Amino acid sequence: MKKDRGKSIATCRMLKKYGTAFVLDLPPLRFECAKTYAVIGANGCGKSTFARILAGLCENEAGKSSANDWTGGWSVGFLPQRSYAFHMSVLQNLMLNRGADKPSTEGMKRAGELLAALKLTELRRAPAKKLSGGETARMALARLLMQEYDLLLLDEPSAAMDVESTLLAEKLLREYQKQTGCCVILITHSLQQTQRMADDVLFLHEGKLVEQGSAIQVLEAPRTPQAKAFIEFYGR
Amino acid sequence: MSIALEKALDLIFAGDRTLLQILAVTLRMSFASSLAALLFGVPLGILLGSARFPGKKILIVLNRTMMGMPPVVCGLLCFLMFCGVGPLRRLKLLYTVTGMVIAQILLITPIVAGTMEPFAAAIYPDLRETALGLGLKKKKLLWLMVRESTYQIVSTYLLGLSRAMAEVGAVSMVGGAIAFKTNVMTTAIMNYTNMGNFTMALALGIILLAVSLAINITISALQRGTGQ
Fold first, then answer.
1. Which of A84, A114, A155 is most worth mutating to test chain B (most B CB atoms within 10 A of its CB)?
2. A96 in contact with B, Cβ within 8 Å
3. Total domain count for chain A?
4. Which residue of A52, A151, B59, B93 could cross-link A57, Cys pair, CB 3.0 to 4.6 Å?
């Protein structure tokens, strides 16, 4: 583990309403470091709202909102569904997340490793705005991984990626987790990705946590009819 | 027509004193009003586009209505405020360049805000989530917002400037088109045409078109330069 921190974080109840309708109503949860959690569920079930509340970007109507409030110092890195490519080169986009105004040798080295891992080396000088959707998604992931976080929140990081890029991204994430011992919360639609990446699974349905358990248990033998229907529909 | 055009070009290249004076007043008024409108309109547009607050939709509708306000209506309102029985009569703004600048600010600020608002609405939510998701500080976020908006702000400014230069209704009512004092290119074109002095009117028209062309070339160059 890279630094002193608690081995887990406990969230408080999460609540989000739009008008009178509940978009999200989750009980307190616990997340452990060095583990990967997949949050699955159909469109509109509240997965992104859950991630945005955890990242402190969306108000939790039940009280405390960000992971920092709960954990007393876990650093949180959040990759939104639509990551913004800044009007600068791919390399400069990565260096933006290095803190220092002037690029350091260490930062350049790290950027080079990440670009190579995601097959973006040739595009390092290209304007980030000119990248395709999949390339932008890879750049956004590389940019996030320039820093070490205790909690990584990834909202459908590979939605725009092809199969090869998805596998590269997953490999990179596993290496990052191994090096930093961070906790990863992965919002995904892909059950295949869930199977490859997740230790535990949280299944959301209409803003509620319907099922939670190990990835094998939830994917192989879901207990609730909603989870069963979802897994059967999306196939494994 | 061709003789008038020839004489107009002679006037421009000879640096006619009256022509230069009209040009100076026009530039002074246009730069002052467009810069002030930029200062008010850009933050207002960003606020309307990116912030959430009660009454925001009403403000957007009001701003859009103001964008379409006829210049003569704006001129009339300013005239009524500044005239001898108006509430601001003590400021003695009627028939002054300052009064014309105020009228122009009222006309251009909604246009600046209305141009910035959809831009801010389109990029700021994603930009904000991305920057804060990376853990960047609010100061850095603000710097990024300004950096990402530079092209839009400059092109919005140029739009405001060209609008200020081309405006005639409000400035003629508030400024009175007094020779060597408040006469600007548009009001002068109108006056010279009414007097039958087509040479001078054409010369001013050519300058006005040249300025408009220069502004559009600048915008296009900026677009190419920033890849937007």
1. A84
2. yes
3. 1
4. A52
Residues in chain A with CB shorter than 8 Å from the CB of B127 are 84, 86
Q: Is residue A67 part of a domain?
A: yes
Residue A184 lies in a domain: yes
Write the pLDDT tens digit of every residue in B120-143. 999 999 999 999 999 998 889 988
| A56 lies within 8 A of chain B by CB | yes
Low-confidence residues in chain B, pLDDT < 70: 1, 225-228
The band of A5, judged by pLDDT with boundaries at 50, 70 and 90, is low
Q: What number is the average pLDDT over the span A173-202?
A: 95
If DSSP states are collapsed to H, E and C, what string results for chain A?
CCCCCCCEEECCCEEEEECCEEEEEECCCEEECCCEEEEECCCCCCHHHHHHHHECCCCCCCCCCEHHHHHCCCCEEEECCCCCCCCCEHHHHHHHHHCCCCCCHHHHHHHHHHHHHCCCHHHCCCEHHHCCHHHHHHHHHHHHCCCCCCEEEEECCCCCCCHHHHHHHHHHHHHHHHHHCCEEEEECCCHHHHHHHCCEEEEEECCEEEEEEEHHHHHHCCCCHHHHHHHHHHCC
pLDDT tens-place string over residues B70-107: 999 999 999 999 999 999 999 999 999 999 999 999 99
The answer to whether the Cβ–Cβ distance between A96 and B147 falls below 8 Å is: no
**Which residues in chain B touch residue A48, judged by CB atoms under 8 angstroms apart?**
none
Domains in chain B: ranges and CATH: 23-181 (1.10.3720.10)
Residue in chain A lying closest to B124 (CA) = A84
Give me the domain span that covers residue A59: 8-83+148-234
Look at A77 and B133 and tell me if their CB atoms are within 8 Å: yes
**Structure-token match 């490519």, residue found:** A85
Of the candidates A75, A86, A144, the beta carbon closest to that of B144 is on A86
Nearest to A57 among B123, B129, B147 (CB): B129
> CB neighbours of B220 closer than 8 A, spacing ≥ 6?
none
Residue A87 with chain B: CB contacts under 8 Å = 147-148, 226-228
Report CA B115 to chain centroid distance, whole Å: 12
A74 touches chain B (CB under 8 A): no
Closest CA in chain B for residue A129: B227
Q: Is residue A93 part of a domain?
A: no
CA distance A74 to A54: 12
Domain with A61 in it: what CATH number? 3.40.50.300
